[in-house]
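Bench notes, afternoon.
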Amino acid sequence: LVRVRCGTQLAMFLVDALDHGLAIVSEQSGLSLANIRFTSALFVLFFVAHLFRLVRSEESRKNFSVVLGVFVLWFAFRRGCVHALASAVANYVVLLAVPRRVAGYWALAASFAHLLWMHLYVFLYSPDIMFDAAHMVVVLRTSSVGFNYSDGAVPRKQLTTRQAETALAELPSFRDYCAYVLFFPSILAGPFFEFTHFLEFMRCKTPEPEVRRGVWTLLFGILCLAGFVVSMVYVPAQYMTTPEFLYGERFSFWSRNAYLWLCVSLVRFKYYFVWKVAEATCLAAGLGYGGRDSEGNAKWDAMSNVDVLQVELPENFRQVTTYWNKGTNRWLKSYVYDRTPTSSRVFLTYMTSAVWHGFFAGYYVTFGLGALMTQAGRKCRRFLRPLFIESPLWKSVYDIVGII
């Protein structure tokens, strides 16, 4: 008990010292302390993850995940972490209370109800709040456990291949559930991954990537951060709302569109930064094995949440939606698209994504148009693509036009 108390006091002293330093950085840089805490937490977790790799006991790894997950949420969001933690606990109670065959839908409804209340508060009163990001991650994980638990009671022949792979024979213990939901390398920004994958990793049954893979991914994330900082200085998004940009003679129609394209492209780099650092942290912890390719080589893309080249130079709209926020796309595919009527599944999937993001109108415009473009893209691909794929030259022309 004395050792625990001393260890807790030492940890609090180090956190206070770090917080003081971050407050100074915030004051001198002009950035909010919440942003500084969030970013510093991402980097600190990368180094802590290397220590986690050294722990080989399944029980110890799960305990480590719970304790550090709670601590990270508290450090990054302070009192705001209560919402993510309360949602996780409440959803486990729901899974215990409702019939197993509908547990997934109840978990989805309960988690989304809390998240929507939080999004509404952000929309009406405080758009700068950041702790709803972790809450969004928690919603994906808690609802997936609910559906996996329900699938475990369904005959395997009635399930899809993926549903059969992720089905749970019984409800996980509360400790195992929390270890998954609060898994520290990806609690702040994702990505989403399945509970069964998590258990294999905790039992050390999956190959582990080389340390240098995580380092290179981290460096790429830092490069993306530099790109975003450059955009804030030289291509600020706020400038597009000024009368000079909108009505001034300095810009032509084409130059305005060029500025818009460059600005939006560079703004995306802040998401690349967060996702790549989170991926690097998962790799540092030993999580990332994605099976083997056709040549038998190990793939380490299981925790990859974005493919930058595929997003920036896509041949069609489908590639953008597939390779952007890949973890959330997997969740949408498994727990919304595959479980809704065929006639409306595209629209319902996109609208679920919009609701999950929040109440700002841009989300609904983006995902509403996304549903329309996905349907239109499917029809165009079905009728136009066969006309071009016979010739390598015309296939290249088709791809280039698609990128433009």
